[in-house]
Amino acid sequence: MEDTKKLGDDYSLSRVPKSARLPLWDITLVRVGALATLSQFLLGAALGYGMTFWQAFWAMFFGSVILQVVSFLIGYAGAREGLSTSLLSRWTGFGRYGSTIIGAVISICCIGWFGVQNSVFANGLVQATDGKLILPVAAAITGLGVTVLVIFGFKLLSATAKVAVPAFLLVVAFGIYDVLSNQSIISLMSTPPPGEALSIGVGATMVAGGFMIGAVITPDFTRFARSGKDVFWMTTIGTIVGEMGVGMIAVLMAHAAKTSDVVSIMLQTSGWIGAAVVVFSTVKINNLNLYSSSLGFTNIIDSVFKIKVSRGMVTLIIGVIGTVLSILGILDRFVDFLVLLGVMIPPIAGIIVVDYFVLKTNRKALDESRAEDTLPAEPEKLNPVTIVAWAVGFAAGYFIKAGIPSINSLIVSAVVYYVCMLIINAAKSRSELKGKIAS
Length: 439
Fold this sequence. Notes:
55% of the residues are buried. Residues 1-5 have low confidence and may be disordered. Helix 7 runs parallel beside helix 12 (228-257) and helix 19 (384-399) runs antiparallel to helix 20 (405-438). The protein is mostly helical. The protein has helices at 24-35, 38-50, 53-81, 85-88, 95-128, 135-151, 154-182, 185-190, 200-210, 212-216, 219-222, 228-257, 262-280, 282-305, 311-328, 335-344, 346-359, 363-371, 384-399, 405-438. The chain is globular and about 85 Å long. The termini are far apart.
């Protein structure tokens, strides 16, 4: 437990003890902050531009229900065990080296999006200062500023959210008030989409796929929750306020402004202050991107090299790397690669949920060690079945175009893992039975 005392370590390689758990309000604000962002506003505006209000509502609803179920199940496991996603995966099907692969995929994905969104944030600062601040300087300020915040761990992320989330919601509320004061909400809800039509299926895919990575890394934050009930309310409030609330407001604004350009919408309704707050909201999601990436890399170093390094130091290194890449503009060319990695992440949730809640492979070891506030004994090195199920799930998400790709990959990987493990466990049981009979 001594490693947890290092600056910013934040229980990256151990359970979060009961004494360090936080109130529901603190973790809920972080969750809402992950959803109430520029990207969610952009998603809602895109739906509103191509759908009627009620079409957008049902697309948002179906996509949100999927995210809620995934977030709650995997988040509950994280809270019960006090473990992050990458650490939890060691004892839920992936083993020591399998968890390293998970850590790598999540970390690269999150640090990539950190760099991309840092560029968005920096561009917003450049526009806000009328070009007085050049992009490289702005990107350095924003990237390193977020890095410093994340070094100090989850408590500071929660404190930041207490300021940023209300400010964002206040601006959005002012924007919708401005829209409603000039137009009838009934007429907006019945107007045809101003842009090219989208189907409800495509819309639900956009919603579920847009935050699926966030759903999978839910344990990174719910490990600080005090109970499963807190996890339920955290994910539910986050979904209703952040996903549905902000998204549907953006739908109405897109109908009123006849555009999906978020910054233009906020300029029309709230002026530069509103646009600045919306752009600054990227700080909240970038906090979480960098935080989850640092947990993943810490797990990788521990798994492969068996060296316990401070998460704070890891955060500093990858934060500087992400900032430099965003200054150079390199990351903009990797968005397609990041989207591809995004299809690789949902199967992780499917396998963890099946192993933890259905097969319960290591539940006894987890329960016994949890009672002593330690980690279970060394897990298996690597489960080949997990890798096969993960690969098949990824292929399903990538190649099957019907339905929602992220859900296709999650369900297929879960089913393949469950069936294959049942077959293997049955074969082991028969072999052990024959051994007993022979003896």
